[in-house]
What does this fold into?
Amino acid sequence: METKQLSLGKYSMGVGDRFGRQTRAQLQACIQALGQGVEIVPVWNKSNREHALIGSEPLSARLAADAAVKALQWKLPYFVDADHISLRTVERFLPACDFYTIDVADFIGQPAPPATIEAFVGRHPELLEPIALPGTGEAFTLSADALRAIAQKYLKAVVSAGEVCRTIAAAKGEGHFITEISMDETGSPQTPVELVVILAAIAGEGIPVQTIAPRFSGRFNKGVDYVGDVAQFEREFALDAAAIAHAVRYYRLPANLKLSVHSGSDKFSIYPAIHSVLKRFNAGVHLKTAGTTWLEEVIGLAEAGDDALELAKEIYAQAYALRDELCAPYATVIDIDPARLPSPDEVRGWTSQQYVSALRHERSNAAYNSHVRQLIHVGFKVAASMGSRYLDLLEAHESIVAKNVTENLYRRHIAPVFLGGEG
It folds into this structure.
């Protein structure tokens, strides 16, 4: 009897929640989208690194998600993601998670054995024929040497993903989890033809992949806008969507396989391009917004004023003092100019409006400071060290914080990507 695979909907959103206090506010944004006729599957994601920095366990994310779903009577699918896991870290996520983002970046470029490469080339003569990408008018042709070079670069990464996937399946059962493969944290983008080859290898490994996160050109820094050529991104995104459509038909991959955009938080410049491509190809997308909610918590505290504003200022001061330590794990996805960071003394003199204006990502506001925003983005460890001081203030000002969280997700992310307009 064939096992029924859990299926991820056409549109889904990764909603990271560092401290597990905003799940209802995040879900409320999805409820607002549903009111506009668009179903967006919430996926609460939290990585091993984030759990380690905060001192939390994967079960906490599951409990928070379940509680929000029950409180708001959400009857549609939702998932909890073991974000950026590997064979080394997957075990602790097995009891709590049903979505697994398998990160293969460390294996890209590590060559597979020559015999493995030759066997792959031998199994795939179709990859040496012209590869026409539907809906684009473009076709690519690989030589045998070019195919070997791609296989040499990516096969070991795909094999490692297969090992992780089989470990999950042994614990959860076939079909009882969603699989994403992440290749975005690498030095260079994958080409569309490389993506076809990678997907052929994924099919050969028997991985039931439902989303895949390639690397695109440009900078995808944490919590700030895209830096790069938007027209080039749109072309890459369209070709990758077409490459997936080709691979789904040819290799019998899951019919709902779709692109995942990592570091998707606040990439406002490319959101219209993503929406356009989704409509053009009738495609789905998984948009990850991890970290955005934490920033909205700090914005909400700053808006609340008094003790909450003073704590927000203290968070900045400590993050400023610890910036080298806090930035190190995120060095490839942040660009902070220390000269553009105000001193803690200056920030201590800010009004509530000044703090909010510097941190809230409103590009029309001249006071917005992307360097401050990136520093606070990576500074959640500071709030974690405050323990109940931070969490108690979140609870005390829940209404204003939640309003910011919901509005940010719905108006700045969901509306332009999934609805095609402003919220």
